[in-house]
Amino acid sequence: MLQFVFRRLLPISLFSLVFALTPASPAQVDDAGHQLARDIFKQLVETNTTDSVGNVTTAAKEMEQRFRDAGFPQEDLFLGGESDSKENLVVRIHGTGKKKPILFICHLDVVEAPREEWQTDPFKFVEKDGFWYGRGTQDMKDNDAILVTSFIEMHKAHYVPDRDLILALTAGEESGRFNGVRWLVKNHPELIQAGYVLNPDGGGVDLVNGKAVSVDIDATEKLYGDFQLVTTNPGGHSSLPVPDNAIYHVADALGRLQDYKFPFELNAVTRAYFQRMSTLVTGQNAADIKAILKPSPDPAAIARLSVNPEWNSIMHTTCVATRFNAGLANNALPQRATAIVNCRILPGYTLRQIQQQLVGIFADPKVAVWFADDTGVFLDVAPDRKQLPPAPLNPEIMAAMDKLSAKMWPGAPVIPTMATGASDSVYTMAAGVPSYGISGIAIETSDVRAHARDERLPMESFDRGLDFYYQLIQMLSSGD
Predict the structure, then answer these.
(1) Of the candidates 43, 41, 150, the residue with the CA atom closest to the CA atom of residue 104
(2) Are 435 and 429 in contact (CB under 8 A)?
(3) What is the set of domains in the chain, with CATH numbers?
(4) How many CB atoms lie within 10 A of CB 77?
(5) What is the pLDDT of residues 410-444, one digit of tens each?
(6) How far apart are CA 236 and CA 239, in angstroms?
(7) Which of 186, 209, 397, 477 reaches 20 to 30 Å from 380, CA-CA?
């Protein structure tokens, strides 16, 4: 309305000049923008980007064409990577340069999805009962589509932010091979230099029976590590069993791991998380959370809270067996038995320290413990690498999140959290750039299906997630 009144008071030519020099501030995505987002979401889900038979480059080129069609100049689009099928796309919206850029990192690859295990084709975008089904609908082609659409809509609206906005659509987050963020940090740091990183692969809105109970920000995350257990012996005929069976050695070691609990520990982020949770839960949980926050935490309270898998992972390093392989024939003693143990390690501890701790837990000199690096190579000594301490919470991010969350999910507090998984933020944090996991996707805590069969996303959640990110970007870059 104000623009309309102003226009009536100026000659048309003068109004046009003033309007052209005034940065546009698009407030929300219209119906056409929402349809564009759904079309991009569908296109991404139906492009297979698994490590085995998929092709991330195909998806990256599809998105590059989307940006070209929207009018992005070629010099603001970069396509490249260390593998023909694992190329990454970097897109830039130029700002005034008043502040350092914001980098958004979004991986395009997804985990494997055997068709026989799904009710629907995992690489078909299926609408059913208010949900969209397909591999990547939760992790993370929903947010890929949301960020692509947000950049396109802002470009169409001639939005001029007070800082450059950079979007990196990358490969290799799920498999670790040809990781795109790692490659960009090493080979093209000039493309992704930023004041901080927002990673939609973390955070989100927790729903319980349809009600938003918290809006999470991943302010730190655990360190990922794979370890291989190996036992070998001469084998022999199964009619002459011997106690020195390779399978038994590995199985016994895994049994000891199952019974072991890594020490309880809180850091600045997880302590803040539980302090906030103590005001949201009731009964025994509330009492127990208050008990673990004391200078001398109550072991009984720790044990009771650890029954909750999420809280257990927040309070402890966790290591769990995920694969087992042994034997060559039903009628022969195994000559070799192996297992993979996947660890999610609290910040402050190195991969080598955890390897040494596993050796002590297994307590069997016939079980060798190797470290598996991102490329699948096994090393007898793990790297001396650890997750950096949590970055300080950024005041401008927290202020924007508090304001926007109060608008979209009234009553749901914004809570800093530690991601119990791992993401590409590990590479940007290692490069010295504060990185935060932020998503506007709302999911029932009982229906998290990332990496699981029949992955799905509520249709309403996707639409609101687009509105959330579109407004958040403006709040962080409008200069207000």
Answers:
(1) 150
(2) yes
(3) 27-218+394-477 (3.40.630.10), 223-379 (3.30.70.360)
(4) 16
(5) 999 999 999 887 899 989 998 999 999 999 999 99
(6) 9
(7) 186
